[in-house]
Amino acid sequence: MGVERAFFVSAVDRRYVAWFGNFLTAAQRSGSPHVVKFSGMGAGIGSPSEILRQHGETDEALADSGLPYTILRPNSFYQNMLWSAGTIKDHGAFYLPMGNARQSLVDVRDIAAVAVEVLTGTGHEGKTYVITGPESLSYHEVANKLSAVLGRSIRYVDVPPEVAFDSMLKAGMPQWNARAVTELYGVFAAGEAAGTTATVERITGRTPISFDQFVRDHAAAFS
Ligand SMILES: NC(=O)c1ccc[n+]([C@@H]2O[C@H](COP(=O)([O-])OP(=O)(O)OC[C@H]3O[C@@H](n4cnc5c(N)ncnc54)[C@H](OP(=O)(O)O)[C@@H]3O)[C@@H](O)[C@H]2O)c1
Q: Which structural domain range is residue 107 located in?
């Protein structure tokens, strides 16, 4: 009892909905905390992506729970590019099944700043915040920005979804996760995560971190 605020974030996993159910039961037993839930841009029960359906189902369960709540729906993180740091270092290239789609990637530091404000401030109950970076970038533009900041040529190589799936399996990702992430890439490749929002500036009062700044801050990881 006596819990006033609670934050839920969980790993990408086939058991996600059950895990959130356990959390919700515990939250309801602990009083009536304001629950801040991490979700994802495009979450919805009708999504072609299982990950986004899981988020949609659990976001709805929270909204229907009677607890005060705020849902955070960030776009993909800039920091996901660190998964490609090895090939960027070794081959001057990164490989993704994104075609020419644009995506308004966002820095996790900005998402965290929004979460802190929501957890410590007022006026956020019943709200769903879609959190994006300041620019909608194609992965060719991402490559150009990496090249400019790192001072050497970095290429984006568009690969078929099955190649991305195989490489995730080879890297040790469980089969369910590799399939679910490949499916999610398909949603992004269709341009569904291209739009930008003003959430970071509106909630935190500061300009969102640019992709150039992210690369400058992590240059050592890519070099
Ligand atoms: N990545 C994105 O761009 C993005 C964007 C929007 C929303 N989201 C959402 O944010 C959440 C986290 O995403 P992510 O990409 O960071 O996911 P992730 O790669 O699946 O999760 C990473 C973290 O979860 C930990 N973890 C995994 N299984 C665990 C378990 N059974 N118990 C405790 N910890 C466990 C991992 O620990 P170890 O490192 O020790 O294995 C790691 O620290 C997901 O709900 C995802 O849908 C992600």
A: 5-222
